[in-house]
Design goal:
Helices cover 77% and strands 0% of the residues.
Amino acid sequence: MSGSKRLDKTHRHQKLAQIMGETIRRERHLLHWSQEKLAHEAEMTTESLGRVERGEAVVTYPKLLDILYALDLPEAACVAIFRQDADLRRAAA
């Protein structure tokens, strides 16, 4: 893999992490939940959730579903995240 392709993929992953984090934080705030509450409901640590919300970590697909189901909006949020990922992939191509 060339250096520029690697940078594109790394940039795309960073942007996706940011989008996922912003989406999760926004939806958590709409429920007036603390990070502790969502972390408990999604069966993860508060520290891990904080990293996700700050865009510092990308969660696995199963853990993303745990978070989105805890927020009670799996379909809409997943579709929005997948669309953003598809847009990022197209832009990097």
